[in-house]
Amino acid sequence: MPDSPSESAIEPAIEPARPVDVPDTHRPHTRTAAPVRVCFVCTGNICRSPMAAAVLRRRLAEEGLAGRVAVESAGTDGWHAGDPADTRAAACLLAAGYDAGHTARRFEAEEFSRHDLVIALDTGHLRRLRALAPEAAHTDRIRLLRSFDPSPGAGRSPDVPDPYWGEAEAFAECLAMIEAAMPGLLARVRELLDGADGPDGAGRDGDLRR
């Protein structure tokens, strides 16, 4: 979704995607025993952040880590709260073999205390999240998704562009950027897991994040 409220009022007519049921560990606010929790944040929580969450869940399952990491997504704004993913985002995910089940929601300030990583999809979200953080220490948990992408950065935008106003190609490009950041993100998740499992693991409100 765009960050501008004026733009949001001109949304194109889109046939709602049929919600796909997903396991409870994919739903927001579900309590799990997972020692590490990750939340992706975009604007409306119907395009970029649910796509990123779906990709990370698949990668975690492939690595045998699905039960040890809880993955959520949310939006800086609540325009689409309760809606499924944008039909184009869902189609892109399904075509690539990912789960498209999703219910949009808004990110709330109190969530910082229960997430180890809060991952912004662009610099606008990064600023909003930093302003929302109730304590200065919470800002250490906020990262840009593309900061995990090891590819050359000269002249490269730090943002995953909003595909909302584009066609299927824009969603495919968005997915490719998300996938490129996954190896680096998984490495960070493993660091957090190692810290949580070790004798000096600090727990969710300790000093694991950097």
TrEMBL record:
Protein's UniProt keywords contain Hydrolase: yes
EC number(s) reported in the record: 3.1.3.48
Cited Pfam families: LMWPc
Gene3D superfamilies named among the record's database cross-references: 3.40.50.2300
Record-annotated Phosphotyrosine protein phosphatase I domain positions: 36-188
UniProt region (Disordered), positions on chain: 1-29
Record key words, sorted: Hydrolase, Protein phosphatase
InterPro entries assigned to the protein according to its UniProt record, in alphabetical order: LMW_PTPase, Ptyr_pPase, Ptyr_pPase_sf, Tyr_phospatase_low_mol_wt
Catalytic-site annotation from UniProt: C42, R48, D162
GO MF: protein tyrosine phosphatase activity
Matches recorded under PANTHER family: LOW MOLECULAR WEIGHT PHOSPHOTYROSINE PROTEIN PHOSPHATASE (PTHR11717:SF7), LOW MOLECULAR WEIGHT PROTEIN TYROSINE PHOSPHATASE (PTHR11717)
Assigned protein family: Belongs to the low molecular weight phosphotyrosine protein phosphatase family.
Protein name (record): protein-tyrosine-phosphatase
Lineage of the organism: Bacteria, Bacillati, Actinomycetota, Actinomycetes, Kitasatosporales
